[in-house]
Amino acid sequence: GGFWERKQDGLADILMKRITLFRSNLYRKGAVYDRRVLDDCSWKVLRNRYPERVADKSRILHGYWADVRVPGDGIFRFRRELYAKDSEMLSRIMSCNAISVHVRRGNYVTTGVKVLGEDYYLRAKKWMDEHVREPVYFLFSDEPEYLEENFKVFKNAFIVKENQGGDSFMDMLFMSCCKHNIICNSTFSFWGGVLNNCPDKNVILPKGYLTNYTQGLLGTWIEEEG
Are 138 and 93 within 8 A, CB to CB? Predict the structure, then answer.
């Protein structure tokens, strides 16, 4: 939010976010199953107490969504038609032992949120190289030019640049289609790992980040020093 949001988003994006927040406040006092706008806490209540009401209306979900235990029953997933998008990069991802690498910068740099150092990614890469046969790395970032300059050590790797602007959310879809994931301290890449349906996936995350929420996930979640 704040200045960074106003600087980066178009007017339509800002209005939609403001309307969403306004509607959320309007529905906050009503019964949870009647609310049109839900955050992750009220969504959990709806799922647990009124599972039969989950799909009885369209809903807007707002919040950070940092708890993997919230969804349940695989209810969150990308629409199938998105997979049919004409994308050479997506086809390449789905045809090899793809490993996603997400580097979050953007407002992290300007607001003082910790940006993971290159050492973290090198340790994660070393682990993947030792445990995955013929790995191919796909690098994602809100600053792809940073990857070109600072991630040259990643051989047999591709920088994904095609999902920009209104298509930025497709990066999460692409990451979820990888066999394994190296995520950062961002719920964007966290959900790329959560939505990865490979039963033998390995997901590497910064030590101490969302540890309590990764228990019981399919595959193996491994911590590395950030």
Answer: yes
